[in-house]
Amino acid sequence: MKLSFAGIFNVFAVATFSMLISFESASSQPLKIGDIRDGSKTPPLHIINLYDSDSLQILRNDNTLLPFSTRFSCGVCHSYDIVRKGLHFNAHDRSIAPGRAGEPDIYVDWQNYTLLPLSYRNWTGAFNPRGVALTTMDYLNLFGTHMAGGGIGEIDSLQSPEDYSRWEISGKLEINCLACHDADPQYDPAEYSSQVQKQNYRWAPSGASAIAGVKGYAKKMPDNFDKYNPLTYADIDRRSFSPPLATYDLSKFDSNNKVFFNIPRKVQPELCYFCHSSVYADESYLNQWTEDEDIHVAKGLTCTDCHSNGLDHNMIRGYRSEHAGKDESMLGSSTCEGCHMVGKSNAAKFGRLGAPVPSHKGIPSIHFVKLECTVCHSGKEPKERANLIKTSRAHRLGLHKTNTEPELFPHIQSPVYVRNKDGMIEPHNLIWPSYWGRKRGGEVFPLGTHEVENILAAHVTPDTLRGYRKWHQLDDSTIAAVLRSFTTADSSGGEHVFVTGGKIFELDGGRIRVTEYDAMKSYSWAFAHAVRPASRSLGAKGCGDCHSFYSNFFFGDVYIESSAKSERDTLRSMTDFMGLNSMYQKAFSLTFFFRSWLKAIMIASLVIISLVFVLYTSKGILLLTARASSISRKNAGQSDV
Amino acid sequence: MYRFLSFLLLIAAFVYFFLSLRKNRIGSKEIRGMFAGGLAKSLAGGWTNKDGSLYFKLKLISYYITVFLFLVLFITGMFPAVALGVRMTGLFLMIHVESALLFTISFTVTLVFWAHRHQFTDAEMPHNRLTTDMALKLLFWLITLLIIIAMLSIILMLFPLFGTDGMENLVDIHRYSVLFLSVTVIFHSYYLILHNRKRSQ
Question: How far apart (Å, rounded) are the C-alpha atoms in residues A243 and A49?
Answer without folding.
Answer: 26
